[in-house]
Amino acid sequence: xxxxxxxxxxxxxxxxxxxxxxxxxxxxxxxxxxxxxxxxxxxxxxxxxxxxxxxxxxxxxxxxxxxxxxxxxxxxxxxxxxxxxxxxxxxxxxxxxxxxxxxxxxxxxxxxxxxxxxxxxxxxxxxxxxxxxxxxxxxxxxxxxxxxxxxxxxxxxxxxxxxxxxxxxxxxxxxxxxxxxxxxxxxxxxxxxxxxxxxxxxxxxxxxxxxxxxxxxxxxxxxxxxxxxxxxxxxxxxxxxxxxxxxxxxxxxxxxxxxxxxxxxxxxxxxxxxxxxxxxxxxxxxxxxxxxxxxxxxxxxxxxxxxxxxxxxxxxxxxxxxxxxxxxxxxxxxxxxxxxxxxxxxxxxxxxxxxxxxxxxxxxxxxxxxxxxxxxxxxxxxxxxxxxxxxxxxxxxxxxxxxxxxxxxxxxxxxxxxxxxxxxxxxxxxxxxxxxxxxxxxxxxxxxxxxxxxxxxxxxxxxxxxxxxxxxxxxxxxxxxxxxxxxxxxxxxxx
Length: 495
What we know:
Blueprint: H1 5-10, E1 48-49, E2 58-59, E3 62-64, H2 70-87, E4 91-94, E5 110-113, E6 119-122, E7 127-131, H3 136-143, E8 148-150, H4 161-166, E9 183-189, E10 195-199, H5 204-210, E11 219-229, E12 232-241, H6 245-254, E13 260-265, E14 275-283, H7 298-308, H8 314-331, E15 335-336, H9 337-341, E16 355-365, H10 369-379, E17 386-395, E18 410-420, H11 423-442, E19 446-447, H12 457-463, H13 467-477, H14 486-492
Helix pairs in contact: 10-11
């Protein structure tokens, strides 16, 4: 049977769970965090916008959701920018706002969410043109019936395609770099209303600033993106010592017969980061009559239940590792490339209003992986927040983005923590995060920018040495600083 139960159901998905998508509502428990630097503190109002952290309730001036594409979307962007410049307000375009520190929210500004999933395929060129407001679910819906698949997308289908490019996100297809490596060109509106085309050949400086530029360079109208054939895939499983993972993983991702691969580490305290599981996918023999991409099934929701029962229960963490490393391989069956990626993040959402899932991600050089394991063993277990999952992915060299997190090939460690929505939990989480960043940057690694703004400015500039260059270029392109968000306000403004 072709479906999604193998990887997404029995293997408990990609560790990208968050506390759901908060919108206009005052986040539950946020009042407990008043006065904590960097989060909350504002009283409730009708003009607050939040993100997936549920800790970033931020006052805004307005939030519009244009259903537009092409010339109509360009006109909508220009109207918002003109009004913002006249009022001296910032502008930001977001999608799912799955970031966790206000990186997609303009404080006291004009927020835009584009609700139009227009997509057009060019099968001869192997590309698709996609509207700036499309989500990955829209892309799969359009490509799947034609036998194609996104070359790279984020691990869940809720997120925006242009947003993925803007945060320099990656996926778990191999051997690619970030999703931006698969973008051929884009059109965007600059802060002064100018429409530009940017690619590696045309306006390349704008392209390298916008890739991983968090919407600070321009508002993306549409993009031309690479696609690949959809495939029937069979999984393979290998359990090993954690120290052996980098060499095995590197060999797997270099194999042209393996288009998808990821890893996991055992998070049970008794064997913390001692064992690794590598899961690879190879094309099955029969590539005819590929079935439509499946959606979430019963097994995905059962996996979510197992995932949640880990909280406060070390015994359940041991059982989950047994399920993933021993039980699931016995039941593993065929799936499709699109089905493996066609999963909403809400499947793993936490329904507890007093807790929230917080993500970290670290990009570790393969030769530094042993040091990463030691750092995590020494820092994470003493934290008040609880560690639930780590997924390991491969990210190839990113030679393009000014704010590149992977200037060399990296193992991306996507970590999921759950914390109480209290000032105590937030303060301890900040302490732990800074300790991890210090250790990982010392190893030559980097941390990912869309999550809680716990890093110091010194840590930010150590991990992203071209940050001052980015800030200077942004001021030249947007001297009125119309395009702003919390990443700029917290880290880049003073550079």
